[in-house]
Specification:
about 800 residues; alpha+beta; 6-stranded antiparallel beta sheet; 27 strands
Length: about 800
């Protein structure tokens, strides 16, 4: 939906309101062309409306009005005011019409400041023939008005002076402006703008008037006119309305001039920035016609192409001729679209061949410029040299590829279960990822005199028959196996006779011999060869050397793993001796102690009892070690266990202890190590509580978790201090005030509870009184039967 301009649609309706008897009216559009006239002005000018509509107003007045004027000075002032866009409040014009009759008209002009007519002008010619003019106000067309028009005309000419500096313009306006007043020598003028002051015979007096200079309705300065006579009268007694209007028109003219100067300055700054951009632009800015005829070429043309800009502008060299042949079809397709598709643009990277024959990568952004009907008429764009960036990107891509290959080799190294698997898989990956044809790996024998083949791929039999085992001190292998340096044998390097035989026996033209290092010690070598390459680039060499180091790390891990397995087997042997043979010896010693106790009396019998207790403690330590070993070596094999049966079996083991327990029907998930929990907790309670200590065991449902039971083992012993309650289940920690120092029992208890999916903690038996005994509580998962489950009941 569009809004129709009322002026252009029906001007006779829009300006009909201006028509009045005895007044000729011309309405000018924003280009100072006649857009509407009334019938009276056509009669005054002795013409028709059709003849003057659409014509320039100065031409119409000069052709039809000036010949009728009796005063040439008035004619010049009127035409100057119209040409310069100066409003005229009233100018008397003596006219002799076409019939020879004398008439008097008052001419006035006004610029419209309201939409939708803003910028248009209304010119009026009021017939005042035979009327008496009031002397109290300025006479239309009198000397005062003509003086003001002449002053404005001089100001207009100053403004139009080409290249006049702003400071000089303001000084000249201040000098000219008094001439528009009746007593020029009694007038002083001061103009302010942008912090600067320009004066002409000015001094401060009460008799002065001031108007603002505005640009886009913003105050940018002022004009002050002062009456310099003594005594100084009041402003209203000196300056009439016409003179105030003269000052306002002058201020408006300066405002428009300042705005125009600002616009010109901005354009010049923009041009300077563009010129600086073109001069400092590291690329090429260009424009051509759609037929590729160049309009301009600016920038680093010669630095990028080796040709001068003039060679392209004169057609000596065409841009498409220096495009790399492989990239030319793609650019020709884009050029066709630029010539045919409205608003088409493209951004592409391609190669150009310089004058010296070298190749550069460039990036071109190009678009077409179309006329009003959308037809492309110009093509413009920028071209930048991106060779360095391209090489950097290619280097990054190469480095990324190397990292990917190394990551795959590292994955193989980390996941291989055996040394042979590591060597075989690493060799296969290296050949596939780096596209080699032949490969084999060697490992040194224990005496480090021979390198023995461990795996190979596509190696000719004639090579293997002679080199399955290599003497490492012989040349050229000593570089690799003794010095630990990579060795590259290449046809392009014109190898010696021995090296040529090596290449021939492998059927390759380039061979890389990479040492495999484990902790800076050579343990073997990786050989890879290519049938198509005449040599290896630095990038490939660095990558192969990194692969050799990674395989060496894998070999070292394999060696350490074997050592660890041997140490583990040895440790198990010692543990088996401790837990079996020493335990049997302890049992025998305990039997002899029992015999001694029966045979001896008094102090000797007490010594025998202490000896038996020490033997039992040693046996307990061995039992704890064996239990910890089982916990770490054997995965949990949980099954339903009847909790009461386990507890009752432990109580039968120590019938002399004061332990109370009410049977429970609870069945829990556990294994055959469950009794160790109760053995350690009950033994601790009796041990630290003394012969009078009582132990209470309860099994209850857990209030917080379904299908979980809470087992409590309480005693009336010395209790556990608050500071030790958090650490008591850690290895080698003790919570009691005294003990023999092993610190393994409660650690085993905590480990087993965690193994069964529960948690354990310790509290005071009586809240707030740790001296009245401890309460050990732990949870176990209860077995829920569906009626069809089968389970093995634990029995002691």
């Amino acid at each position: 939906m569009s809004v129709t301009d009322p002026v252009s649609a029906h001007p006779e309706r829009a300006f009909q309101i201006l028509d009045e008897p005895g007044v000729g009216v011309l309405v000018l559009d924003r280009d100072m062309q006649v857009t509407w006239v009334n019938a009276y002005v056509a009669d005054i000018l002795s013409t028709s409306e059709e003849e003057i509509l659409g014509c320039d107003a100065p031409l119409v007045l000069d052709t039809h009005l000036v010949p009728l004027l009796r005063e040439h000075e008035s004619a010049r002032g009127l035409l100057a005011a119209v040409r310069d866009g100066i409003e005229v409040p009233g100018l008397e014009l003596p006219v002799q019409n076409a019939r020879g009759e004398e008439q008097r008209f008052v001419y006035s002009s006004q610029k419209i400041e309201q939409e939708p007519f803003m910028g248009m002008w209304v010119l009026r010619m009021r017939d005042v023939t035979g009327r008496k003019v009031d002397n109290a106000s300025p006479l239309p067309g009198g000397c005062e008005d003509q003086r003001g028009v002449r002053a404005l005309h001089r100001i207009s000419r100053l403004i139009d002076t080409p290249g006049i500096p702003p400071a000089e313009l303001f000084c000249e306006v201040a000098r000219v402006l008094p001439s528009g007043f009746p007593h020029p020598k009694r007038m002083g003028v001061r103009i302010t703008h942008d912090g600067a002051v320009y004066t002409h015979r000015y001094r401060e007096t009460p008799g002065k008037i001031t108007v603002d200079i505005r640009v886009n309705r913003r105050r940018v300065g002022s004009i002050e006119v002062a009456y310099l006579s003594e005594p100084s009268p009041r402003p209203e007694d000196v300056f009439n309305a016409g003179e105030q209007y003269l000052l306002q028109v002058a201020a408006d003219m300066l405002g428009r001039t300042i705005r125009r100067m600002n616009e010109v300055s901005q354009i010049r700054e923009s041009e300077e920035r563009y010129r600086s951009f073109v001069q400092n632009f590291q690329g090429i800015a260009y424009q051509t016609r759609v037929d590729s005829e160049p309009v301009f070429f600016h920038g680093a043309v010669e630095a990028i192409t080796g040709y001068t800009a003039g060679e392209f502008l004169t057609g000596t060299v065409r841009w498409d001729a220096i495009v790399h042949p492989d990239d030319r079809p793609r650019l020709q397709e884009s050029a066709a679209r630029l010539q045919a598709v409205t608003g088409f643009s493209t951004d592409q990277v391609y190669r150009v061949v310089r004058k010296d024959g070298t190749t550069r990568w460039v990036r071109e952004f190009v678009q077409n410029i179309c006329n009003e009907d959308g037809t492309p008429v110009l093509i413009q764009g920028t071209i930048q040299d991106v060779t360095s960036r391209k090489r950097t990107n290619e280097g990054l891509l190469s480095a990324n590829r190397q990292l990917q290959i190394l990551n795959q080799i590292m994955g193989v190294s980390a996941s291989s279960l055996s040394l042979d698997e590591l060597l075989e898989t690493s060799l296969s990956k290296t050949l596939d990822l780096l596209v080699f044809d032949v490969g084999l790996t060697y490992l040194l024998n224990p005496e480090r005199t021979l390198a023995l083949t461990r795996c190979h791929h596509a190696v000719p039999k004639r090579y293997l028959s002679r080199n399955r085992a290599i003497k490492v001190h012989h040349w050229p292998w000593n570089f690799v196996f003794i010095a630990g340096q990579p060795r590259y044998i290449e046809m392009r390097s014109k190898p010696g006779t021995v090296e040529e035989e090596i290449l021939a026996s492998l059927g390759v033209s380039a061979l890389a011999c990479i040492p495999i290092l484990a902790e800076s010690v050579v343990v073997g070598a990786l050989f890879v060869g290519s049938k198509g390459r005449q040599g290896l680039e630095d990038e490939e060499r660095h990558l192969l050397e990194a692969i050799g180091r990674e395989i060496g790390s894998g070999v070292l891990r394999s060696m350490l793993h074997k050592r660890l397995e041997a140490a583990h087997r040895e440790t198990n042997l010692y543990l088996d001796i401790m837990t079996h043979d020493i335990k049997n010896a302890g049992n025998v010693a305990s039997l002899y102690c029992d015999l001694l106790i029966d045979m001896l009396e008094e102090d000797a019998a007490e010594y025998a009892k202490k000896l038996r207790e020490s033997v039992r403690k040693s046996t307990g330590i061995l039992q704890n070690v064996a239990t910890i070993r089982r916990i770490h070596l054997e995965p949990p094999d949980l099954k339903p266990v009847h909790l009461s049966h386990v507890i009752r079996a432990e109580l039968d083991r120590i019938p002399e202890a004061d332990v109370s327990f009410e049977d429970s029907t609870a069945e829990v998930q556990a294994d055959d190590l469950l009794p160790e929990i109760f053995t350690n907790l009950i033994d601790n309670a009796i041990k630290f509580g003394g012969p009078d200590a009582r132990v209470m065991i309860r099994v209850e449902d857990c209030p917080d978790d379904d299908h979980t039971v809470v087992v409590t083992v309480e005693d009336t012993g010395p209790g556990i201090p608050d500071g030790a309650k958090e650490t008591i289940f850690r290895r080698f920690q003790q919570g009691r005030s005294q003990g023999y120092g092993e610190g393994l029992g409660l650690y085993i208890v905590g480990t087993l509870v965690t193994r069964y999916g529960g948690r354990i903690w310790v509290e005071d038996r009586v809240s707030g009184r740790p001296d009245l005994g401890a309460a050990f509580r732990f949870t176990l998962r209860e077995v829920v039967h569906t009626g069809t489950d089968e389970y093995d009941e634990y029995e002691e």
